[in-house]
Amino acid sequence: MSSVAKMIETIETQMDAESPQANPEHLRMVEALLFAASEPLDQKALSTSLPEGADVPGLLAELQGIYQNRGVTLCCVAGKYQFRTASDLAFLLRKEQPEQKRLSKAAIETLAIIAYHQPVTRAEIEDIRGVAMSKGTIDILMEIGWIKIRGRKRTPGRPVTYGTTEGFLVQFGLESVVHLPGLDELKAAGFLEAIPPSGFDVPNPSDELGPDEDPYTGEEPEDMATGSVNLDEA
Q1: Kind and range of the H or E run holding 151
Q2: Which end of the chain is more exposed for a tag (fewer CB within 10 A), N or C?
Q3: What does the pLDDT look like over 94-152, one tens digit per residue?
């Protein structure tokens, strides 16, 4: 063996020795907890079930590496972790069946606007869509659990602002709203023209309160918040 090869082997050996190794028993525990959980788990929830001093971030990173090219992968959604079928194998589990309930075109458009423009008020949603919106459209999306009232604008009338929920992130497999498809991805998927209109841009949604937004306390009258559910209006 040449001196160069020996030197490389020595360096690799030292790096392996210095790299922290995940505790095998702790790794099995995290794997079991995530496998049995019906909902995504965050690091805090995992740490409460593990021995004191367990390196939860390191264990999760190790598991993600182990399952990276498997049929089941460890995904981070809304800051929490969950085992999911690999996206390229979804066709194996797809089952065609009649849907019990479909979202109307108005509801889909409203959901997209809220997702990309949040925080957004009802008036702003109507301005973007160009048509008046029935109260039932918002109610249905809130009933599903995909949107929520997140704050109030510091403008006359103090209108409520809407945003997406953790359930929305889990449903669409997103770690946060900043991971929504961007301009290039939307064009590649065929949702936008190859050359969008001049001045067109994709908004940058945020989970943080805006500079002119106050947190929603939930103390406002119910009729100002959501209103009653009316499926016919959606």
Answers
A1: strand 147-153
A2: N
A3: 776 665 667 889 999 999 999 999 999 999 999 999 998 887 899 999 999 999 999 99
Q: Show me where the domains of the chain are located.
A: 22-89, 105-233
Return the closest-CA partner of residue 183 out of 198, 193, 168: 193
Q: Tell me how crowded residue 157 is: count the other CB atoms within 10 A of its CB.
A: 10
Phi and psi at residue 216, in whole multiples of 5°? Answer: -80, 125
* Cα 111 to Cα 108: distance, rounded to the nearest angstrom: 5
pLDDT one-digit tens code per residue, 5-57: 555 455 455 444 444 577 899 999 999 999 999 899 999 999 999 998 899 99
Identify the H or E element spanning 106: helix 105-117
CA 144 vs. chain centroid, Å, equals 15
Class of domain 105-233: mainly alpha
Report the length, in residues, of the chain: 234
Quick one: tokens of 39?
């909902």
Q: Tell me if 22-89 shares its fold with 105-233.
A: yes
Q: According to the model, what pLDDT value does residue 182 have?
A: 79
